[in-house]
């Protein structure tokens, strides 16, 4: 029906409906506006309330904190307070009138160019930061003025949180109301962190880095200091001069742009090499200085703490330091009381670095740095990456092979002429080759070619992938000239990579801890003045199978205990230990440049090893190349002796059980390439049929045990044919601890006996290529009938696995070869498929590892 024919009533109803529909959108719009207005009002009120609460909970502007008197407290592993670090040890306050204008202007140019114009907050800079935070997320960009930085460092944490930022701005405004700009700038320049090599404040930094007073600082010097606060460790000019020089030039550019210096002044300063500016001087230090330096560095590496004025933050830092262990390390290195420690005399460039960690937890118990009583700040050679030589072979060759391919310790490798993937030849000591041998013998003798072959069989990429969870080696690095260096190379298996003793200790501890790795750490937790706690202990990670860890450990015990091993000087009496030697080498270019004519000269020696309790890594060498900066045959076992004495000291009074063979490993007699019968380890399920033993040497006999109640000791003794004694060593063990073995008297002593408990003693004779049957004596001292229960067995029911005794496994067959000597290698330049001329050698068995003056690596990324 059309509208013209509708009734009046129908038309009115239609009009009412039309009006209602036309009014509905307007009504909804009003409601939306009203709702938004209400929400905005709530937001304003709520936001104002929230900000008011934030301000109300802000700390007081305490004048005492402005005078910088809060100290940091350091606690040891037992939560005992061991030191209070006060900034006065790192700072000498200066008056603003004594600071040259170009020094003040350098900091203003890079940190706060409108310092003299704002009221504590730079609104223009704040607007840019707000936009960056909107587009990039909160914390993407900061807008802190010098006043805000001062407030944050003295009163607040470095946490990127809205509450902290509001409190920072509020306190900055309050500070500006109470103090003049000159007073604020003076406080800032006296408390600012200017790198771990110097400390806090411009005066001590000027003295430390340049050996100058403040009024002697050049424009370039001022720019170097102003470059540091953004990342104090990374831009430390003593540790990282290349980084500092680049940042210095940025500061100079800003000073020129803002009219603080002329173009001529900027050009002159930019063209000054930072090395020409530096005249680094040190100051007297405190006890445990090296350990505390690392504590400060680790705190600086933490994002929440990095910018804080740490020494005056009132922090309580709970560390992993074992004072007794630290004192033992210092005593071994510096007292001159220990045998076998032959150091180059009167050579200031000679250095030693040591890291001692808890094998199970990864906690660093002590650092060793230098051999002299010197409380002055120096580079930490324990944490500085160095070439580690053949100590890398277990990590990049044999452990990956066992882990990925389930190799046995009897795997045959041929020591023969061989090349890297790119065709560069590899060499052994004296260019000699020993032919086919087991993997065990190759590692015990530290042969280069079998190690490279093992890595190639696994593949270079897989080998480094195995290492990555423990030690991450970068693919490449680029120096300031743009030169690219490849690091994940085949030569790395012989020590061509640079790794610190701290990293080595962590990786070797994983072998001793059944394949579980914990990154070495030195801080357990931090407690803030307000009671908040920050846990800093790392998580542990299973990085390899237990059979890999045990089989490598068993071979590394032979490195120390076997007559043909390269690590015999590292043997610790009565303590089961495993470890690996390493040696680096000069190339012809370095020898010629520094006129090093001794063919047996080499730049550095290393040793890394472990027990079930402790792991220690030792490096000894020189801070730079020089005409007299080399080691000789007289020093070839010094690193091992350092390890031996430190481990002897820290294990006193500590029960140290042997490494336990897991069920995943089985022992079998196998025939070696030299037709000898050797007892080797296999991953369960891959073992061959047993071959009967055919030992040609006599067994120990007449085992006896004598229990001394007064001293609570058990003394075991045995007999052996006199005409065979010079040809063998005795390996003795006890099932509930460790023994002190006297080879000449054929006795072993066990202390701390528990009366009434049964002990099982095992002994066997070992020659260069054979071993006797294991002979067992069970004894129960202090039994109820007051008579010791003794039971002799010729051999245990199941073959005693290698490494289950106290002094290592049966020796690998020697093919009549003489014991291995670690001699400097020949001078060749091996290569790799993706590098120009990588270092080759690790253990003096061939090749050539160039040791240039190493650039100080950055600590922060």
From TrEMBL:
It catalyses: Preferential cleavage: (Ac)2-L-Lys-D-Ala-|-D-Ala. Also transpeptidation of peptidyl-alanyl moieties that are N-acyl substituents of D-alanine; [GlcNAc-(1->4)-Mur2Ac(oyl-L-Ala-gamma-D-Glu-L-Lys-D-Ala-D-Ala)](n)-di-trans,octa-cis-undecaprenyl diphosphate + beta-D-GlcNAc-(1->4)-Mur2Ac(oyl-L-Ala-gamma-D-Glu-L-Lys-D-Ala-D-Ala)-di-trans,octa-cis-undecaprenyl diphosphate = [GlcNAc-(1->4)-Mur2Ac(oyl-L-Ala-gamma-D-Glu-L-Lys-D-Ala-D-Ala)](n+1)-di-trans,octa-cis-undecaprenyl diphosphate + di-trans,octa-cis-undecaprenyl diphosphate + H(+). Residues 1-23, 688-708, 780-861 are annotated as: Disordered. Residues 824-841 have a biased composition (Low complexity). Residues 785-808, 842-861 have a biased composition (Acidic residues). Residues 14-23 have a biased composition (Basic residues). GO terms for cellular component: outer membrane-bounded periplasmic space. InterPro entries: Beta-lactam/transpept-like, FN3_dom, FN3_sf, Glyco_trans_51, Glycosyltr_51/Transpeptidase, Ig-like_fold, Lysozyme-like_dom_sf, PBP_transglycosylase. The chain crosses the membrane at residues 32-56. Pfam families: fn3 (PF00041), Transgly (PF00912), Transpeptidase (PF00905). GO terms for biological process: cell wall organization; peptidoglycan biosynthetic process; proteolysis; regulation of cell shape. GO terms for molecular function: penicillin binding; peptidoglycan glycosyltransferase activity; serine-type D-Ala-D-Ala carboxypeptidase activity. Residues 1-13 have a biased composition (Basic and acidic residues). In the C-terminal section; belongs to the transpeptidase family. In the N-terminal section; belongs to the glycosyltransferase 51 family. This is Penicillin-binding protein 1A.
